[in-house]
Backbone:
């Protein structure tokens, strides 16, 4: 009986640790953050139940994936915090000693939002029909790449091509978030 | 707020987009990660471009309504056949058409990720057998089991989720300023930052906490409540006021891990779970409904799962009226 899938996973982690630190240092441009991320991967692994560990087909790739999620979570958390700070200062007339929270965007932000929506709509309109269909199936219906491929009757790599075309176009036309 | 256009060349944008899509697809091999590392190291622009691409890609999930509206508008403007390829239960087209400019602004504002925006509710639906995870603007995520429907409303003061018949696992981002509230059946669940599973079946609600502290109270009487900590569960039956805390599971809810675990549960419960897990509904007919089952069911494909269940229990499965019926073998004879 293989009751030590988790132990094996931890062994893979120890073996790949230097490679993971290097990867995340390159990704984040910050060796200290890379260390933190790789340490957090370890914490996640320890919390993983044996039954889940047994279902992991590709342990090394799994480690990279957890790290990627941790990294993105960290980025988004910081953005939320800075957006919150921004809202505090924007809503200065409403807040006294920092106890009130603005719950609507400023008129300026709303105008920018409308402009941005128009740009998204225009950018999406410029995409080829296949790309739009793939985008809808993946981002709205929540299908995986393989499921989109099956639904559209095309290969997985075509689906990835469609989706990256959509993303590149949005990045270019709508601007960076 | 930063408002800028891309500082990167077209080819860097294309490459970053391709990597972001592949990373989002979740089936990168170790060799792919090493190739990615080489690409990242090739230019100082590359890591920045990838992070921006990943963020925009993730941002599209934060308000699907806006993207949906944009796609619908584009489809209407170009080819009228596209929407037919994407059948959906809750078409936002209708709302979109009559609500006009005000809603457009609201949708667009959502797309901008203004975190304190007073929210319009978004409704999410899964078909039987379909599971999906939604990520909210506050960073919380909700994994929905098949056959579920819930609506989400985020405002500056609170985060409100309304669950109909559904099962969902919540991983709540900590935000002491905005309590996260789930109303379901006759109860209300309130949390700050935690992970838990809620399931609503017919007339009862079960809450199972895997991390943090959750307070469950009656909607009609908030003073009547229990606090659950890690590993505890409570089941509430509509119309009854009993809030009995039991030992739950600290593991990820079974349906998320592709398996279901039962301890002396009636087959009718198992059938209800299988109906969420697969497109074809499963019913326990007659005496079979009361047969007890203890064990773990692995959810691979429906036929195999049913075969294993038949091997465990004195029942037989047959198809009728677009559903699978489970009958006791005694009765069949």
Residues:
């Amino acid at each position: 009986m293989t009751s030590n899938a988790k132990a094996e996973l931890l062994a893979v982690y120890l073996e790949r640790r230097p490679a993971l630190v290097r990867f995340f240092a390159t990704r984040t441009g910050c060796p200290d953050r890379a260390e933190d991320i790789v340490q957090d991967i370890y914490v996640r692994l320890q919390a993983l139940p044996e039954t889940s560990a047994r279902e992991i087909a590709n342990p090394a790739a799994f480690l990279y994936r957890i790290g990627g999620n941790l990294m993105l979570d960290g980025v988004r958390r910081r953005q939320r915090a800075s957006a919150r700070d921004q809202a505090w200062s924007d809503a200065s007339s409403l807040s006294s000693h920092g106890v009130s929270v603005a719950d609507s965007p400023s008129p300026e932000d709303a105008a920018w939002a409308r402009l941005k929506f128009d740009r998204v709509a225009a950018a999406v309109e410029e995409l080829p029909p296949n790309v739009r269909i793939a985008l809808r199936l993946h981002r709205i219906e929540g299908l995986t790449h393989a499921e989109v491929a099956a639904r559209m009757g095309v290969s997985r790599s075509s689906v990835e091509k469609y989706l990256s075309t959509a993303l590149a176009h949005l990045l270019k036309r709508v601007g960076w978030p | 707020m930063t408002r800028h256009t891309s500082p990167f060349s077209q080819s860097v944008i294309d490459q970053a987009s391709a990597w972001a899509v592949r990373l989002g697809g979740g089936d990168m091999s170790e060799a792919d990660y090493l190739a990615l590392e080489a690409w990242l190291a090739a230019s100082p622009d590359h890591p920045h471009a990838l992070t921006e691409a990943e963020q925009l890609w993730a941002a599209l999930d934060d308000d699907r309504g806006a993207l949906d509206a944009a796609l619908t508008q584009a489809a209407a403007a170009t080819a009228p056949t596209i929407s037919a390829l994407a059948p959906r239960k809750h078409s936002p087209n209708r709302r979109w058409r009559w609500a006009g400019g005000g809603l457009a602004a609201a949708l667009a504002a959502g797309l901008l990720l203004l975190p304190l925006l007073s929210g319009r509710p978004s409704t999410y639906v899964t078909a039987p057998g379909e599971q999906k995870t939604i990520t909210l603007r506050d960073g919380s995520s909700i994994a929905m089991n098949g056959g579920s429907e819930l609506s989400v409303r985020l405002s500056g003061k609170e985060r409100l989720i309304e669950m109909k018949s559904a099962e969902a696992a919540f991983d709540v981002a900590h935000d002491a300023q905005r309590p996260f509230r789930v109303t379901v059946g006759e109860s209300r669940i309130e949390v700050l930052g935690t992970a838990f599973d809620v399931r609503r079946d017919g007339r009862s609600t079960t809450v199972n906490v895997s991390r943090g502290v959750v307070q469950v109270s009656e909607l009609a009487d908030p003073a009547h409540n229990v606090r659950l900590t890690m590993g505890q569960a409570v089941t509430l039956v509509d119309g009854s006021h009993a809030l009995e805390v039991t030992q739950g599971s600290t593991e990820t809810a079974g349906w998320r891990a592709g398996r279901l675990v039962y301890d002396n549960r009636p087959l009718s419960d198992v059938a209800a779970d299988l109906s969420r897990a697969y497109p074809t509904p499963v019913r326990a007919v007659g005496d079979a409904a009361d047969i007890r089952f203890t064990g773990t069911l692995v959810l691979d494909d429906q036929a195999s799962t049913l075969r294993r269940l038949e091997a465990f229990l004195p029942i037989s499965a047959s198809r009728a009226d677009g559903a699978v019926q489970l009958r006791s073998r005694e009765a069949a004879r």
In short: Chain A touches chain B through 70 residues (CB under 8 Å). The two ends of chain A are 49 Å apart (CA to CA).
